[in-house]
């Protein structure tokens, strides 16, 4: 009998890449692609599309009865607006994961569980270390996607203790970029002007979409690595450097006005407060464990990955767009000064 693999979040770009690669592998007998979204293109013939979300009883029945030996959980979302609101996003992320793991606990053939997590679990603050390692305490995110990711990891660790026969791999991925990636961070660099926090120039890491697919495939089909691993392209990119590569003018905002300007940007980009902090303080994770224990070193450095993403951007910024955003930022400043003077 060949491998039988269930992949959640399978209709998103990362999921489609992984499902396509698994379908081409002769060792794989069956792939169950779970997502309530319709894929942009039909899945390959070897793939069964289960069009449900993680809270569906149909998912529970499939995990327990289809002889699934590997579960790859990609179904944690970072975009509250796309999920239907923050409350719905949390329910899908946390409660959906709980239900998936409850089903997996009773799956007799399960031998491997892979979770696509995020370096957002470390948060972003002025007190951050120069490099985050996997063993460091990371209680900074109090809400949003980062907090969801922490809770999801906690439930996966609990599952790991109760099913020691299952190899559990947690991959904390840096911000993904690439020619086909569409997420809140890439949309920030697509804005005609990139707002920044005055006096801050954070260090950022990126992971190319090709390397994302490769590390997920290795964790799924290679030797079963047990543990938690940071994954990011080598090196760092300063925010000012990234904005320059993207060909967009920066718009420095005084720190007291950052949240107000973030609200303005949020009309265009599904932007959360934690992403604002990321663009103020940055985040850099140590990836040596992935290299030593997974044997995985990304082909794309952080800089080259971002350059590949930036190569598709529309660099035409009109003077009218610049003046409009500057006018809106100055208007916010006037209102803030007026409020302080009361």
Structural features, described:
The protein is α/β, with parallel strands linked by helices. Helices cover 43% and strands 17% of the residues. The chain has 13 helices and 13 strands. The chain has helices at residues 13-24, 57-65, 80-83, 86-105, 144-162, 184-190, 209-221, 239-246, 258-265, 273-281, 288-294, 302-310, 319-340; strands at 3-8, 28-34, 47-50, 70-73, 112-118, 167-173, 175-177, 194-197, 203-204, 206-208, 227-231, 237-238, 250-253. It has a seven-stranded parallel beta sheet, with helices on both faces. It has a two-stranded parallel ribbon with strand order 7-10. β5, α5 (144-162) and β6 (167-173) form a beta-alpha-beta unit. α1 (13-24) crosses α7, α2 (57-65) runs parallel beside α4 and α4 packs parallel to α5 (144-162). The longest helix has 22 residues, at 319-340. The radius of gyration is 21 Å and the shape is globular. The chain starts with a strand and ends with a helix. The mean pLDDT is 88.
Secondary-structure element order, N to C: EHEEHEHHEHEEHEEEHEEHEHHHHH
Q: Multimeric state of these chains? A: single chain
Please report the total strand number as a whole number. Answer: 13
- Classify the beta-strand content into a percent band: 15-25%
What is the molecular shape?
A: globular
Spatially, the strands of the biggest sheet line up as: 3-2-1-4-5-6-11
User: How far is the N terminus from the C terminus?
Assistant: 74 Å
Biggest pleated-sheet summary: 7 strands, parallel
């Amino acid at each position: 009998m060949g491998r039988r693999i269930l992949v959640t979040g399978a209709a998103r770009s990362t999921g489609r890449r992984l499902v396509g690669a698994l379908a081409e592998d002769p060792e794989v007998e069956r792939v169950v692609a779970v997502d309530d979204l319709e894929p942009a293109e039909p899945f390959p013939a070897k793939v069964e599309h289960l069009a449900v979300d993680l809270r569906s009883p149909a998912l529970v029945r499939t995990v327990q009865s289809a002889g699934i030996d590997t579960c790859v959980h990609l179904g944690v979302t970072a975009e509250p607006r796309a999920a239907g609101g923050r409350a719905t996003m949390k329910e899908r992320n946390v409660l959906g994961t709980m239900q998936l793991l409850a089903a997996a606990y009773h799956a007799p053939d399960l031998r491997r569980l892979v979770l696509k997590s995020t370096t957002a679990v470390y948060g972003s603050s002025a007190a951050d270390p120069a490099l985050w390692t996997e063993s460091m305490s990371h209680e900074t995110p109090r809400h949003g996607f980062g907090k969801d990711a922490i809770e999801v990891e906690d439930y996966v660790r609990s599952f790991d203790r109760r099913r020691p026969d299952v190899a559990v791999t947690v991959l904390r991925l840096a911000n993904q970029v690439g020619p086909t990636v569409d997420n809140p961070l890439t949309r920030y660099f697509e804005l005609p002007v990139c707002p920044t926090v005055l006096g801050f120039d954070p260090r950022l890491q990126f992971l190319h979409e090709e390397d994302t697919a490769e590390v997920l495939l290795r964790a799924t089909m290679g030797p079963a690595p047990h543990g938690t691993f940071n994954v990011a392209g080598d090196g760092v990119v300063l925010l000012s450097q990234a904005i320059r590569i993207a060909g967009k003018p920066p718009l420095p905002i005084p720190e007291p006005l950052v949240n107000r300007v973030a609200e303005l940007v949020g009309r265009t980009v599904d932007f959360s407060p934690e992403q604002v902090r990321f663009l103020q303080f940055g985040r850099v994770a140590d990836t040596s464990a992935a290299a030593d224990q997974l044997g995985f070193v990304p082909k794309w450095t952080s800089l080259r990955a971002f350059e590949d993403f930036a190569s598709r951007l529309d660099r035409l910024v009109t003077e009218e767009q610049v003046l409009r955003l500057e006018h809106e930022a100055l208007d916010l400043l006037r209102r803030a000064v007026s409020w302080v003077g009361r």
